[in-house]
Write a structure and sequence with these properties.
alpha/beta; seven-stranded mixed β-sheet; two-stranded antiparallel ribbon
């Protein structure tokens, strides 16, 4: 009963009751498919209760994972999950922040991956603009930012957060203001997500620094 209560608490803080394992398995698989290696430096913005964070921390070398979330109560759950998974030796860092960790990360700190799952559609236009500003500053040369977005479910609210429907082009335009290119990788269902909810129709987007891409070509 205690384990089931804790599981429901984790799922509710993630937002998808009954889909914990589907989300976890899909997310670590899609990151590896997009080139994540053990030595990469990884920043998860909106890490929540570490649905993806636990297998990511387990996979990465020590001192490679930083998770940021605005909810201190959820980060308390995250630390508990790290302890249960015996991953403290990996020295993950969790930051409670309203500005994507900027107040605690060094100004020049870069990451190979910036990742946000089921996060961008909870950000107002103003905060989304600040998100892409942070991503643009934080991505290393050749780095990738991966995030899913909502293009089907009408705008509403979820807990204390907005729930916003935007088109892929809306995201592309805002990202471009920060010199980020946008690639639509397809729906998460087409990429292997096996959950049953309408979120399976969410596109997964890949953002990269446009200057970095022009240098590579």
């Amino acid at each position: 009963m205690i384990d089931l209560r804790e599981k429901h608490q984790l799922e509710d803080s993630m937002g998808f009751r009954g889909q914990w394992e589907n989300h976890r398995q899909f997310q670590i698989a899609i990151l590896k498919r997009n080139g994540l290696t053990q030595s990469h430096h990884f920043l998860e913005l909106g890490c929540g209760p570490l649905t993806a964070g636990i297998p990511i921390i387990d996979y990465l070398d020590a001192d490679r994972y930083i998770g940021v979330d605005i909810r201190s109560s959820v980060l308390d759950m995250s630390w508990r999950e790290i302890g249960k998974a015996k991953l403290s030796k990996k020295n993950p860092r969790l930051i409670c922040s309203k500005c994507f960790g900027d107040e605690l990360l060094s100004p020049d700190q870069k990451f190979d991956f910036v990742y946000s799952f089921s996060v961008l559609y909870h950000l107002s236009d103003e905060i989304l603009d600040a998100y892409f500003s942070a991503v643009s500053r934080r991505l290393s040369k050749g780095g990738k930012c991966i995030a899913n977005v909502n293009v089907h479910i009408p705008s509403d609210k979820w807990l204390e957060f907005p729930f916003i429907k935007r088109s892929v082009n809306n995201y592309r335009d805002i990202a471009a203001n920060h010199d980020l290119s946008t690639e639509d990788l397809g729906t998460i269902e087409s990429l292997g997500f096996s959950g049953h909810g309408i979120e399976k129709l969410n596109p997964l987007l890949l953002f990269r620094c446009a200057k970095s891409l022009s240098t590579e070509s």
